[in-house]
Amino acid sequence: ALKLRAGDKHCLVARSKCYLKLGDTENSLKDAEASLQNDKTFSKGLYQKAETLYTMGDFEFALVFYHRGYRLRPELQKFRLGIEKSQEAIVNCIGSPSSVKLENKEDLCFISRQAESKKANQKLQNKVTMDQKWTRKQRPVRNPKTERELLGELYADKAYLEKLLKDEDLMESSTKQGIKVADLVLSGISYLDTRSEFWQQQKPIYARVRERKLRQQRWIRDKKRKPAEVGRYIVKSMEDIDMLLTGDCPEESCKKAERVLKRIQGWSDDEVPNKNELIGNLHSCIGNAQLEMGQMEAALQSHKMDLEFARQNDLRDAVSRALGNVGRVYARIGKFQQAIDTWEEKIPMAKSSLEKTWLFHEIGRCYLELNEAGAAQNYGQKSLQSADEEGDAEWQLHATVLVAQAQVKLKDYRSAIMNFEKALEKAKLIHNEAAQKAIIIALDDVSKSFIEELNKRREEPTIAFSSPDYDFSSENTKDDDFEKFREKEESEERAENQDDEKQKEDARNYKEEHGNSKEGGSEQENKEKESK
Question: Do 300 and 327 form a contact (C-beta atoms < 8 A)?
């Protein structure tokens, strides 16, 4: 780009940034100054020059150019931040301005002379060859603790490079490009030394120690949170977890609950008085989210941890909640007997009629899956009784359907039909169209089975029932029901036939009347013709 448009200030600033990233502060400064050659008010050039000077450790000159840019473009936040960090670096190096007194005895030309001499020294230093670096005297050894404080994670890299210097054979070798390994190692060490000096100027050790102490004090202060703050955080977090789960975001709900759980586990019992109860509740939330995501085994483990915490701390409500959730997971994975055992343990802990309704219904449903229709009918009737006490029409519908399905399994078709008809009325009452369609289909199937069963019984030889000890009361009742059912169908057929016959008779009468009227008209015409 610079070949096509030499001296373009935007390209110069971009290249200056690249040089600065590479640690080549000299070329970075040259490009920054070149971008300002024709336009001294170019804000990007001023900022890049200030950044380069700051990186070189010339905090005072960097502050000058940050101020120039801020006067030209006060709306740019980067100049204000540059002023703040330059002032902080200067204070860290020389102390507070109030402790320094300057006397203006001569002119200030020495500042520019000092800058020029510093640049000249820097150029001379950059001309030192790699061979001279190899033979030069080592810098004064800095305290390892201080150096580790300055370099941080880079201290291990410098120690590794210094260890490589002791390997003479390696230092004599070269890379494929012909560069000596010794030169590469020395350049790396030199770069780390330069950066450590810069960081020491930017933030001396005493400033770092003070900052660490302040950070520790802040951490201790934050650790001792007020009960009101802890309470607000817990309430808000639990609301967010529940909202994410109900909002069809189980994965986010699970992650949020895990983060809150980890944080609460690090707090003391004094900060969170109900810590164990809260931990169990979070395990329950995690288990519910995992269940929604289809992670059955993980959900089962989470709910079992909730149950364990509840039993350890004698939390009756939490035990009841955990047993309900554990049973729900067992039912989802097809372990119906384990689900029944878990839910039956929960029955004495159920408080409301609605909770009992749900519990009895789920147990009955599991018994139905295990083909134990008698137990399923029993729990279905208990569920219906609790639903009647609560006055919940929807659960009355579910319980009635369960009872009817159990009676179909028991081949008590008459009772099943009656309960399906009751369930159909409930479904119409709550405007549940899907339930209505399903019940109508089930009712039709049961009616067919009932008729087939009655037909089979009527076709059986009468000799089988000749015993005087046989109780005909139930059979007579069923036969009466069958006769009533057949009579009802026959009466409906007769009514339909009578309607059809009546319509046919009306049609014949109409045709006869219409035909007579036509014949009478023709005779009258003939008489008139004869008279004429």
Answer: no
Q: Which residues contact 124 (CB under 8 A, 6 or more apart)?
A: none
Residue found under tokens 């067919």: 448
Write the secondary structure of 317-345 as one string of H (helix), E (strand) and C (coil). HHHHHHHHHHHHHHHHCCCHHHHHHHHHH
Residues contacting 275, CB < 8 A, separation 6+: 264, 267, 269
**In the block, residue with structure tokens 């009841």:** 320
Give bridge partners of residue 166 from the DSSP assignment. Answer: none
CB within 8 A of 50, min separation 6: which ones?
A: 62, 63, 64, 65, 66, 69, 82, 86
Instruction: Using a cut of 0.70, tell me whether the model's pTM lies above it.
Output: no
3-state secondary structure of 160: helix
Instruction: Please tell me the distance from the alpha carbon of residue 478 to that of residue 463, in angstroms, as a whole number.
Output: 19
DSSP-derived secondary structure letter, 180: B
| pLDDT, tens digit (0-9, with 9 covering 90-100), for 66-122 | 998 888 888 888 888 888 888 877 776 665 555 555 555 555 454 455 555 555 555
Distance CA 305, CA 326 (A): 10
3-state secondary structure (DSSP) of residue 207: helix
Backbone angles phi, psi at 126, to 5 degrees: -70, -20
Rounded distance between C-alpha atoms, residue 283 and residue 192, angstroms: 48
